[in-house]
C-alpha cells in the first residue's frame, strides 16, 4: 500500500515537472527576438506606448511583444479562433452535428480551430510586421524581413498552442490557461518595482499605495468567494427497486456554481478586443479605410467606448459559455432517469425550466461579479495611474487558474487513492 502511495506521488511529481519544463521552454522562447528588430528603439517605443492597448497585449504575451520575440503573438490567435469556432458551432448545422458526435466530432472541431488559428496568426503577424516597419523599429525593411517575421511569429504561436495541449495531456491543469498565467506572473515583478519607484520619487503617495494594496487583497478574497460559491438545489430520490435490492428514499442536492464559465469570459473579451484592435490598425493603412484608425484610438484601455464594449463582451461570454457547458434539459432528463426529483417541481420539462431559471439568475450575478473585477484595473489606472497588473483581468486569471491547478492536484490524489483501495478490496459473490 505504501509503495502504491509512493508511486502516486511520483507520478504527480512527473506531471508537475512536465508543467514546469513546459513553462521554462515558454519563458526561454519569450526572450528570443525576431531577426531584424532594433531592440533599443523597440524598448523606447513601448516605454511611451505601454499604457495603450499594446500594454494589455504585451501582458498576455508575457512581455514577448515588447521584445518582439518568437512568442510575441502569444496564445491569443488560438483563443480568438476558439471563440469564432464556438460561435459558428451554435449557428452552422454541420458543426453542431459534429459536436454531438462525441470525441470524434470534437477532434474535427479542434482541428478546424487549429487551422483557423494559423490563418489568424498569419494576418496578425503581417499586421505587427507592417506596424513595426511603419514605426521604424527595424534594421531593414526588405521583403526578406516581412517573410522572416511572419513565419517566425506564426510558428511561435503554433508551437505555444502545441505546448499548451501537451501540458494539458501530460501535466496538470489546462495548458493554455497556465501559459497565459505564467505570462502575466512574469510581468508582476517589474510592475511592483515600477510602483515602488513611483512611491520613492513622490509621484505616488504612500497612502494611495496602501489603499491599492488593500483593494487588491479584498478583490482576491472576492474572487475566491465567488469561485467557490454554489447554489445547492435539494433533490430527492424516490424509493426504487433494482433487481433484488430495494433502495430507500434519499436526499441529496444539485450544486450549481455562481460562475459556471470561470475565467473564460475575461480571456475571451480581452482577446476579442485585441483582435478587433489589430484588424483596425491593419486596415487603417489601406487608402479608403483610414477612418478605422480613429476607431482604434477609442479602443484604448480607460476610454469610455473600450469600457462599455469590454463590459458587454464579458456579460455576453458569461451567458454564452455557460449555455455551452451546461444544458438544463439534459440535467433534468438525467434526474428523471435516476428517479430523482426536485421537491415541488414536476419532473421533465418543468424541472428543466426551473433549473434554467436558477442558472440564469446565477449567471447574472456571476457576470456582474466578473465585470466588476475586470473593470477594477481600468478604474485604478484612470484614478491613480497604477499599472494594469494590479487587479482585474490579470488577478482573475491568475487566482482562478491557481485554484483550478490546486483542485486538479487534489482530484488526482483522491482518484488514485480510491483506485488503489478498490483494487485491494476482495468482492465476494452473494
List keywords for this structure.
mainly alpha; two-stranded antiparallel sheet; three-stranded antiparallel sheet; Preprotein translocase SecY subunit; 6% strand; disordered C terminus; 5 strands; 430 residues
Largest sheet: 3 strands, antiparallel
Distance between the termini: 27 Å
In total, the number of strands is 5
Number of domains: 1
Strand content: 5-15%
CATH class: Mainly Alpha
Overall 3D shape: globular
Detail the topology: elements first, then pairings:
Layout: H1 2-29, H2 39-49, H3 53-60, H4 64-67, H5 76-91, H6 93-100, H7 103-134, H8 143-170, H9 175-201, H10 206-228, E1 230-237, E2 240-242, E3 245-247, E4 250-257, H11 264-283, H12 292-298, H13 304-325, H14 328-337, E5 340-341, H15 349-384, H16 392-424
Antiparallel strand pairs: 1-4, 1-5, 2-3
Short structural summary:
With 430 residues, the chain is mainly alpha-helical. 73% of the residues lie in helices and 6% in strands. Strand 2 (240-242) and strand 3 (245-247) form a beta hairpin.
Written account of the structure:
The protein is mainly alpha-helical and 430 residues long. The chain has one domain: Orthogonal Bundle (Preprotein translocase SecY subunit), CATH 1.10.3370.10. It has 16 helices and 5 strands. It has helices at 2-29, 39-49, 53-60, 64-67, 76-91, 93-100, 103-134, 143-170, 175-201, 206-228, 264-283, 292-298, 304-325, 328-337, 349-384, 392-424; strands at 230-237, 240-242, 245-247, 250-257, 340-341. Strand 2 and strand 3 form a beta hairpin. 33% of the residues are buried. Residues 426-430 have low confidence and may be disordered.
